[in-house]
């Protein structure tokens, strides 16, 4: 076994003084023999396992598979926990804690004798949070996603995480589904290990990781319950040890080209709108210039190649059996930087070179470039007096007839106000109204929750209305759909024009021309602006939430903390004793 004096773990384990004794001796209480400290690469397994993060609840076994691979390749694996973020459980929103987890990950890696890192991530925010933290250290790093759940099965048909929840809920409110059926569907939807199996945020993040070159090929789509997921974890354990020996750090892979690839792939798969804030934040950590406009310029004119909910009808399990992301990347090859480097040490093109790697087994699920499911799929970035710093919409999940729309605002001043009034029979609203929700941005909520896809008024649902234009400074679940304008910046809580909208104001949405306009005279807006007072954001008197509201950037900058942008690298901190 080599003793590599350049490994940072040698600053702990390679010493013969008292501190070397301390660093080794306590670790040996777990039964590790002397030769584990002989200079082999020490690999941290960053585990977001938690029973409160159901999508990541199977990660202890996955970590064991990674360890097999690390030992086999001559490394020394040490697993460590970080804070986990369970999307369906945490309040007020997991997004509030994404930056906190990134700090946990960054400091945990740097403070410890690690030479390389394997990230185990799955549920929505666990992927960007861990990656942002790892990027600010910049060691060799590979991601193992936990994999999607098996398809939901309800009364003879496939149902998708999230997407069918929104549909069932509307059905109950419109009287089309009984409470008994609704409760039965719960158990039918989430019936195996894994994360949401729609093309929601978790699957989007897994695809982002694969498109960025940060996971072994096929890493995005293998179901959590498929034994090939464990095999992938084992192989990732092999590979990270080699990556340390090669000095293949994260920043060598996270280039501008990799980010452009991720944007294009995200468009073609109909990925979540949440992709935008997370990719912007990640780019900020590694110093790659990336702006909101890049998403529109690079992605919005790409066709939809993947027929998965919420934009389509299939689920991640079908996607894997159809060939998964390598097939999509191959279809897009003329549009991607195929020479971009990946964690395999090879380029994107080289990764696809093995026989059969790009064969599509089901054209109902993955289309060709010339016969796509939709012509234009990517996220559109809107501008106008209602969103000077931008807003986004996912046209593939919207109603075509609403993409150009003028309607009168029905304003909700908070999420509580919305819940209290949305089903009021006297609410002045019709199918042409534009629902506006304020104070759900990063600073305003706090944490920019997924409330942007507000459910429609009951009385309109009963009339058969299925979609309306909705606008907010919040986000929406990647599993959701509808003509929903999100991430309005600047947000209402910092005095963005959104804060000034009043009931009855005409609003114009024009997605083809990328415009969102509040049709109120400038003098009137100036009058309202002068009278506006910022609302009090709950929970922010002390503690983490206070840090959050004092430092969070706006959505168009990825909602990272101002002081976390950039990286400090993998320096070795001062002696501890
Ligand atoms: Fe965890 Fe959807 S709730 S991925
Ligand atoms: Mg979500």
From TrEMBL:
GO annotation, biological process: branched-chain amino acid biosynthetic process
Domain Dihydroxy-acid/6-phosphogluconate dehydratase C-terminal per the UniProt entry, residue ranges: 364-559
Domain of life where this protein originates: Bacteria
Residues that span the membrane, as ranges: none
Keyword field contains Zinc-finger: no
Entry GO MF terms: 2 iron, 2 sulfur cluster binding; hydro-lyase activity; metal ion binding
Keyword set, alphabetical order: 2Fe-2S, Amino-acid biosynthesis, Branched-chain amino acid biosynthesis, Iron, Iron-sulfur, Lyase, Metal-binding
UniProt-listed SUPFAM superfamilies: IlvD/EDD N-terminal domain-like (SSF143975), LeuD/IlvD-like (SSF52016)
Pfam families: ILV_EDD_C, ILVD_EDD_N
Ranges of residues in domain Dihydroxy-acid/6-phosphogluconate dehydratase N-terminal: 40-351
Family matches, as InterPro entries: Dihydro-acid_dehy_C, DiOHA_6PGluconate_deHydtase_CS, ILV_EDD_C, ILV_EDD_N, IlvD/EDD_N, Sugar_Degrad_Dehydratases
Similarity comment text for this entry: Belongs to the IlvD/Edd family.
Name of the protein in question: Dihydroxy-acid dehydratase
Native source organism of the sequence: Litorilinea aerophila
Phylogenetic placement of the source organism: Bacteria, Bacillati, Chloroflexota, Caldilineae, Caldilineales
């Amino acid at each position: 076994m080599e003793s590599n004096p350049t490994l940072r773990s040698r600053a702990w384990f390679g010493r013969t003084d008292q501190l070397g004794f301390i660093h080794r001796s306590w670790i040996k209480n777990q039964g590790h023999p002397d030769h584990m400290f002989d200079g082999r690469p020490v690999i941290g397994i960053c585990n977001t396992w938690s029973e409160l993060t159901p999508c990541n609840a199977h990660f202890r076994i996955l970590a064991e598979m990674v360890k097999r691979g690390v030992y086999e390749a001559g490394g020394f694996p040490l697993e460590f926990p970080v804070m986990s973020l369970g999307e369906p459980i945490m309040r007020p929103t997991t997004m509030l804690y994404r930056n906190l987890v990134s700090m946990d990950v960054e400091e945990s890696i740097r403070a410890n004798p690690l030479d390389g890192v394997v990230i185990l991530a799955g549920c929505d925010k666990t992927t960007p949070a861990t990656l942002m933290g790892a990027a600010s250290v910049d060691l060799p790093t590979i991601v193992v996603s936990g994999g999607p759940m098996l398809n939901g099965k309800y009364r003879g048909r496939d149902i998708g995480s999230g997407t069918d929840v929104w549909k069932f809920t509307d059905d109950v409110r419109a009287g089309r589904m009984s409470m008994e059926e609704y409760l039965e569907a719960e158990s039918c939807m989430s019936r195996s290990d894994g994360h949401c199996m729609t093309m929601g945020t978790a699957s989007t993040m897994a695809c982002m990781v694969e498109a960025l070159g940060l996971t072994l090929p096929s890493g995005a789509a293998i179901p959590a319950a498929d034994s090939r997921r464990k095999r992938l974890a084992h192989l990732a354990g092999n590979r990270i040890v080699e990556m340390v020996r090669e000095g293949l750090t994260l920043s060598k892979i996270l280039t501008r080209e990799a980010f452009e690839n991720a944007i294009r792939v995200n468009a073609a798969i109909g990925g979540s709108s949440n992709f935008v804030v997370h990719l912007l934040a990640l780019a900020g950590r590694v110093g790659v210039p990336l702006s909101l406009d890049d998403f529109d310029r690079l992605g919005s004119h790409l066709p939809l190649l993947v027929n998965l909910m919420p934009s389509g009808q299939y689920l991640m399990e079908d996607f894997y059996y159809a060939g998964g992301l390598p097939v999509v990347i191959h279809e897009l090859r003329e549009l991607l930087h195929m020479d971009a480097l990946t964690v395999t040490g090879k380029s994107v093109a080289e990764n696809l070179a093995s026989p059969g790697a790009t064969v599509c087994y089901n054209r109902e699920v993955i289309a060709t470039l010339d016969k796509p499911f939709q012509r234009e799929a990517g996220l559109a970035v809107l501008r106008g007096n209602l969103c000077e710093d931008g807003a986004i919409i996912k046209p593939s999940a919207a109603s075509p007839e609403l993409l150009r729309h003028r309607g009168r605002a029905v304003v909700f001043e908070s999420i509580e106000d919305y819940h209290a009034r949305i089903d009021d029979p006297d609410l002045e609203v019709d199918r042409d109204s534009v629902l506006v929700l304020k104070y759900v941005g990063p600073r305003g909520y706090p944490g920019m929750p997924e409330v942007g896809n507000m459910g429609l008024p009951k009385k309109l649902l009963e009339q058969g209305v299925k979609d309306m234009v909705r606008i907010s400074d919040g986000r929406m679940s990647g599993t959701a759909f509808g003509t929903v304008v999100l991430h309005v910046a600047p947000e209402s809580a910092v005095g963005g024009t959104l804060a000034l909208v009043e009931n009855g104001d005409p609003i114009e949405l024009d997605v083809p021309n990328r415009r969102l306009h509040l049709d109120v005279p400038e003098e009137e807006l100036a009058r309202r602006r002068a009278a506006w007072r910022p609302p009090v954001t709950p929970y922010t008197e002390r503690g983490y939430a206070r840090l959050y509201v004092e430092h969070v950037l706006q959505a168009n900058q990825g909602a990272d903390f101002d002081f976390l942008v950039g990286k400090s690298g993998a320096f070795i901190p001062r002696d501890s004793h």
